[in-house]
Design the sequence.
């Protein structure tokens, strides 16, 4: 795969746009969480990657008629949209406006459609006005679409149960889980979030600890010997504030074969964790 799927994504070049998208994604997450039955690992609060951007997927809004709603953060046409199977449509262009304005317009529209998600407005009350750069938003969408495709392929080659590849609105990470099938000693088996051994594969656009985009792989519970396993250069084991494998996005984008480097990273860390968890 050529590097077309891994455009430049230095956070300093698109911080305002990233922050705006993060705030807008929270709106989708809160509506989806309200209209979706609770799921293990909080999957009902995550959002999906669709053909045009981030989406809630189809949400049931009437059990009797099975009418559905979908809300999309459209990063191709740069708008937030809501559509129902009844033919109702709403849209608002993305311009860097405060998330509160988007949320207010969307929720008012849903009320007019007799759809009443329980959303804590305080969680999406952002009043800041940012800069929304369409080209930067498109680069982000191109990046996560490529990663999503590669991770879906990776899911097919590993054994055991895996979780969905989703965006988490709270941290704005793309991630998925792999489960060893073993229970964690001392944890109530009924605890759906903590009872199973698991490895998390993630992609972050950058944060206070690592201020640029990066891939990470962590394990729960953490096997101390895991960090002794070899990783493909320039990946390394990270131990400062969290333990796991770390590979900078810029190194992937600059590699002769970005997909091959990312896949080698996933396989090496997964193999190390699987070996220790299943021994």
Sequence:
């Amino acid at each position: 795969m050529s590097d077309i799927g891994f455009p430049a994504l230095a956070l300093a070049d698109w911080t305002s746009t990233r922050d705006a998208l993060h705030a807008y994604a929270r709106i989708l997450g809160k509506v989806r969480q309200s209209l979706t039955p609770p799921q293990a690992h909080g999957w009902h609060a995550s959002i999906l990657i669709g053909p045009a951007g981030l989406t809630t997927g189809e949400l049931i809004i009437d059990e009797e008629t099975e009418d559905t709603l979908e809300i999309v953060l459209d990063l191709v046409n740069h708008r937030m949209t809501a559509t129902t199977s009844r033919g109702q449509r709403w849209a608002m262009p993305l311009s860097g406006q405060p998330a509160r304005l988007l949320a207010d317009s969307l929720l008012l529209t849903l009320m007019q459609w007799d759809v009443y998600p329980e959303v804590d407005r305080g969680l999406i009350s952002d009043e800041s006005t940012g800069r929304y750069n369409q080209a930067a938003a498109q680069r982000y969408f191109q990046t996560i679409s490529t990663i999503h495709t590669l991770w879906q392929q990776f899911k097919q080659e590993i054994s055991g149960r895996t979780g969905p590849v989703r965006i988490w609105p709270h941290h704005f990470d793309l991630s998925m889980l792999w489960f060893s099938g073993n229970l964690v000693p001392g944890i109530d088996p009924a605890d759906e979030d903590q009872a199973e051994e698991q490895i998390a594969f993630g992609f972050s656009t950058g944060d206070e600890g690592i201020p640029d985009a990066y891939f990470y792989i962590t394990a729960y519970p953490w096997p101390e010997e895991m960090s002794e396993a070899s990783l493909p250069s320039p990946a390394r084991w990270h131990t400062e504030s969290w333990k796991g494998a770390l590979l900078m996005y810029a190194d992937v984008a600059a590699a002769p074969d970005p997909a091959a480097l990312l896949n080698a990273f996933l396989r090496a860390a997964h193999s190390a964790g699987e070996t220790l968890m299943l021994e």
Notes: The mean pLDDT is 93. The chain has two domains: 8-124, 141-278. Residues 236 and 276 are 18 Å apart (CA to CA). The first strand starts at residue 48 and ends at 49.
